[in-house]
User: Fold these one by one.
Assistant:
Number 1:
Amino acid sequence: MSFDAPLPPYNASDPHARFLNVSCLDLLLIELVPLAERMARHVSAGMSSSPNGGEGRGGAGEVGTDGGTATGGVGDGEDEERVRDAMYWRLDALGYRVGLGLSERFSRDRPLFTEPLDVIKFLCKDLWTIVFKKQIDNLKTNHRGVYVLTDNLFRPFSRMSTTVRGEAIQRAQPYLWFPCGVLRGALASLGIKASVQAETNDLPGAAFQIKTLGSTLKG
């Protein structure tokens, strides 16, 4: 599959023409988080029902009538933390693989990058436009390997309800994990090892912090 714009004439009746609706990625991103949560809960439920699962969390293995432990639901809290961690690693890993592929595909015809800042600019302008149909709105750096990318209208958040602000921000956080993986994978493909974190304080905006940990770029 190619993301290149089709050459004119745009003939939809051509049996060899291939078109991809721009809504496909939006729909995929919407379903990724619920899918990751369902899979994580399925795995967590299997661990809880194992012979050693309930005894390890319930102290004496006592279980309340609601399925939680008899010690005030401590086990439930541990289960939720386990589910959230599993979601994070799954979504981040998926994004990492996508980032690797996208950067290899769309940077192959460019001159080799020699500076980390050039790589970051490529992510802000080219990669972000490919994935989210717009550029990053703001880029800041301390010139010591830390970069903050701000998207004032992050596409996956554009359709989210913000009626209850605190709850909306909490629900929105897992939707940042896949893009974090995309950035990390793209950086790795271009020779930069980095950690990526993201947060949102005011929907539909999002900020991504990149901390470079090493580089194989040759100036």
Number 2:
Amino acid sequence: MSASSAQTPKIPETIHGSCLCGAFRYQLRGGLGKPVICYCSSCQMTSGGFFEADSVVDEKNFTISHPDGRPEVIKEYIRSTDSGVLVSRFFCSVCGCTVYTKNDEHAPGMVIVASGTMKGGVEGWWKPEMELYCERKPEWLAVEGVARNERMKGDVER
């Protein structure tokens, strides 16, 4: 199959994901939401890299499960961000993996899911639609064809 005839894989209707150890699992229904890359210092610290790749999804489509019956493995860490608002990051207390974030000021009613926690070939169908805090983006990192914001500007649209 030539590159011109190759098709982008279809995004599954239900996406499954988990933390690194699998003690904290989730299901995401209704598609991917809005895929974003954020370069703010909070996301850099959380990811341990230069950016965090996330999917902003409707909270009602996000369901958490505890395969070993231990909901206490989910811990919340609240921190102020570069924009001055508080965000809640939810992570596994066993392996330390951040699974999702809530930012009620910029993304009310939404959950910001760490895209690297998604299963099922995410690298074939996840593509960012927006970049945030591009003023902190490394010059050598090229992401083309997406909306860019130098800082956080208003709500992250659905």
